[in-house]
Amino acid sequence: MTLGSGGWSSPVVTTTPPRYGTEVEMDNTLVVGVDGSQPSRAALQWAARCAERSGRRLVVVHVVDGAAERSTTGHPDLRGEELLTTERLSAAAVAPHTEIETALTVGDPVWAISRTYPDVGAIVVGSHKTGFLRGSSFGSRSLQLVAASMSPVIVVPAVPESTARGVVVGLDDSPDGRAALVFAAREAHDLGDELVIVRSIPVARGEHLRDADRERDRAVASLEAARRRAESMYPGLTIRSRVVHGPAAPALVRASARAALLVVGRSQAVSAPAAVGRVTHDVLLNIGVPTAVVSDGVTALTSGPVPTRPESRRSPAR
């Protein structure tokens, strides 16, 4: 499913207990949204490869947009069934040993997916967004889904690099940042990749040069603590750490340019987190590699129409 442009509903914020505060077993399901577009096919191919490598279950979902259904002729349910059949076969060709299910539902794509799958391993969607759009207002449905979902959301660019390796995680002190570290360590372990932990610090100039050493020392100490935590969860995991200089969003984009996956927390705020933090907002609008956005489960937007419960079908495990 391509999450391109779309409007906002009036946001309502809800709270739940943290999901990643401790090392708990995470759900083993990848949900991928499809709509027949090229970006959604890229997301499907990426999710299928990921499921095959990690031994996860794959659920392929198509949402018949309620507004579109009222304004078109024909049988949208039938077209949706045909699309799901085609996309399931495509996924099976890439992931012959993966258990694949399909699901068809009706409603607004953002709310249908986020409400139907609130606690899966990850939701995967495609995006055609490119280019750095600093200061842009929320207009991308990718951002809407990130804000609405309690599950991690992985946004895949239209042409992801299939030979890229390594999982890069942006480290910060927020609850969502700590959740991102746990998620990234698990992804690196399950995919057999190395984990690269990145901490950004400002570029020091003029009178602030004296503070640069202290800032770097704090960053190094934070990276070392994160390394120890990841090693305690997954002994034997290959871990590297880096301090990068400059604004966090472009620094993370540069650091992950050749990575298989970039992981960031949904909000970088230590208290009263926003629905989507500025760093995450800018990273997604400049997306270059598959990017996972993870929340500790503290806040999510919950507005929009309640979707029709999907009908699920399972293909035989291969």
UniProtKB/TrEMBL annotation:
> Which SUPFAM superfamilies does the entry link to?
Adenine nucleotide alpha hydrolases-like
- Show where the UspA domain sits: 29-157, 167-294
Among Pfam families, the record links this protein to: Usp (PF00582)
Q: Which domain of life is it from?
A: Bacteria
Please list where the region (Disordered) is annotated: 1-21
Family assignment? Belongs to the universal stress protein A family.
Name it: Universal stress protein
Question: What is the species of this protein?
Answer: Labedella populi
High-level lineage? Bacteria, Bacillati, Actinomycetota, Actinomycetes, Micrococcales
